[in-house]
Design a protein that fits this description.
single chain, about 400 residues, alpha/beta, Rossmann fold, 2 domains, two-stranded parallel ribbon, 19 helices
Length: about 400
């Protein structure tokens, strides 16, 4: 966009920052609408996101309070928020934007779960819940789930022949999976019942299929665990308690039940930035897409840096971004592929290592390139026999 009052370069000069690369400039100055940015490791994504916000503010597209930025950790949220606030303060002192905007109308930069928890707590009464209930920590959740297991008189517990601790772990794991994937326990009950019917089928001339029986056996305890997980959820609700895994699911229930809540959030936040989008879970993706489909949402991520698969996250979210947020129209796609953090040899090794991953995704991932200032320090490879030796080798 070339007809704006302030270009990305002009703003960088005013802030005393290095001018953006052509890739960064394309992201910072892109047209309003859904956009996907594939940002490689060390490619300056935080600086680019901050630059995007400042460019929008300086050119009058939004006010600070109309910006929502979401990421995974409080540390990352604090870093992005601090960077944006400092840039706003500097620009205000130069007269490029109103002097009082930061104090009166700050951007909202927080974690995905904190944002969801705010939606839930502000509207808890709509779900018949308490808005001031405590967040249940891991230890307290364990104690509550274990008490349900210990106090249960279900005869199936004796038949399963597992220790209370193992059953408690299984109940918690299942409870979290139900929340993260927004699955109703009754549906899973029905699935388990259909699997159980396989054991009653005629064997035929060749006998029963071992694999089918193995599947039936693996889900045989599922009805019991579902009942215990349901009791666990009911106990939390009675006590007004919410687990970390429940926060997004409850927020999703709110916006699905009352359209007004979603409409108010869309009106409030005219620009949305989603950091580390490859690590969003199923329920997080549903919440965000149902809130902001067709909205000016910029998702930043990298399928090669996905680390939260253990809790339902999937880099496939990047592939499905256009479906979730495009509202039937194409989305803008950008890349940040210059790594400012690593030298030539490290990048060559990294590109070689992630090569097999490229065949598993339809997202266009560009090979990382070294910055003009990159070093050529060689890469050493060692294979130690023990953890202690490996630690000592890394420390040298």
């Amino acid at each position: 966009m070339t007809d704006e009052a302030f270009s990305a370069e002009k703003l960088a000069d005013a802030l005393g920052r290095p001018r953006p690369t052509e890739q960064q400039k394309a992201v910072i100055e892109c047209a309003q609408g859904p956009a996907l940015v594939i940002a490689g490791a060390g490619s300056g994504k935080t600086e680019t996101m901050a630059g995007r916000v400042i460019w929008l503010l300086a050119n009058g597209h939004v006010r600070p309070g109309e910006v929502l930025g979401l990421t995974f950790t409080r540390k990352a949220a604090g870093e992005l928020s601090d960077r944006i606030r400092r840039r706003i303060g500097t620009l205000a002192s130069t007269g490029l934007i109103p002097h009082d905007v930061d104090e009166l109308d700050p951007p909202t930069v927080t974690t995905y779960n904190a944002f969801a928890n705010t939606i839930f707590r502000d509207n808890a009464v709509l779900l018949g819940r308490e808005s001031d209930g405590a967040v249940l920590g891991e230890a307290s959740a364990w104690q509550l789930a274990r008490s349900i297991v210990i106090e249960s008189r279900d005869a199936r517990l004796a038949e399963w022949d597992q220790t209370p601790d193992r059953i408690t772990s299984a109940v918690l794991d299942l409870s979290h999976e139900l929340s993260e994937n927004v699955v109703d326990a009754a549906r899973v009950h029905a699935m388990a019942a259909r699997f159980a019917e396989l054991a009653d089928l005629p064997t035929g001339g060749t006998g029963q299929y071992p694999k089918a029986l193995e599947i039936v056996s693996s889900v045989s305890s599922l009805p019991l665990l579902l009942d215990l997980a349901t009791q666990f959820a009911e106990a939390k609700a009675r006590r007004g308690l919410v687990e970390y895994a429940d926060q997004v699911m409850l927020a999703l229930q709110v916006i699905r039940r009352v359209e007004r809540v979603a409409a108010e959030l869309r009106d409030r936040y005219r620009v949305v930035l989603l950091d580390e989008y490859q690590d969003t879970s199923v329920v997080q993706t549903w919440l965000l897409s149902e809130l902001f489909s067709g909205h000016p949402v910029m998702a930043v991520g990298d399928p090669n840096q996905s680390i939260y698969g253990w809790r339902g996250a999937s880099a496939a979210n990047l592939e499905q971004f256009a479906t979730g947020f495009g509202a039937g129209s194409p989305v803008q796609e950008f890349a940040l592929s210059t790594s400012w953090r690593n030298g030539h040899a490290i990048l060559a090794a990294a590109n070689r290592l992630v090569e097999p991953l490229l065949a598993t995704t339809t997202v266009r991932v560009q090979e990382l390139e070294a910055a003009p200032t990159a070093t050529s320090i060689p890469v050493d490879v060692t294979f130690e026999e023990t953890i202690a030796e490996e630690a000592a080798s890394a420390a040298r």
